[in-house]
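Field reference: sequence -> structure
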Amino acid sequence: MIRIASYIGLIAGLVTLTILIIWQGVGEIFELLIESGFSLLLLPFVWLPSFLVAVVSWYLLFPIKRIPPFTELTLALWMGRAINTLLPVATIGGEIAKARLLILWGRDGVDASASVLVDKTVQALALIPWAIIGTALLVYLAIDNELAMWILLGTLLLGLGIVGFIIVQRAGMFGFIARLVGKFNTSDGWGKITNNAHEVDSLVKVIYGNRKRFLLAIFWRTLGLILQTAEVWLACYLLGHPISLIEALMLKSLTSIITDLAFIIPNGYGVQEGGYIMLGVLISLTPEFALAVSLATRVRELIIDLPGLVYWQHVEAKYLMEKTP
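Structure field:
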């Protein structure tokens, strides 16, 4: 069901993106991008620090004596992010791939599964301070208090949903699902799966119990989101309409919140662009310029995410070849 919704979301997003480009003028938009030339290739590099900070955040969610090498975490996060970005998997498939990759590299499956589950929660929790920062700047710039109120309301609802998700995790979500499925599955191997599910639940509770590391993980994730502001600021500068860091922070924060809330649309196609147009106008960016900024930041998908997807296929193919007699 989620896969079908993701495919529908992908089609809807691409159609919306196409309409926006045609509506704002294909020539004007691509003229802005072409005039900037190869300088736009700098954007993925200023984004990289935010990625490394995300790796540090995930690093904190493993048992101290069983933390995988930083290189493995970096590669797994790179490939998982590429899957979530470029494939219609509702931002879930990449998380599953992260755990699977660590297991393929010989890491404990319980550690990998529990850390990925909590990391997904950390990612969601980081959106709350991120949204508050963007909303506060919207008010500070005296742009649109009514919009700020709606964003805060949406953030509150998001927070309530996350709290509910954490409660379900702490109550033993995996064990409950395993027992439920076990009633209809009488295979001999299901008992082992149920035991592993209970182990994952136990480790999840341990991770949450270490509040210092858990809160640090949220801090690093939030910092990573803030660092992504450099990408928007530089894109505006390279395209010929510099904006202040405060304006860039507000623009990046609120557009990314809008995009993340529409998670069913892969990579936020059309949603991100609509967000840039809506919010860019508030800081005196023309619609076609705001759309060009959004498209410029997508250069990262070609430079970083596409190779990540290709490398993931290489890793999986190598595993299958080694497994096949």
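Note: Confidence is low (pLDDT under 50) at residues 176-194.
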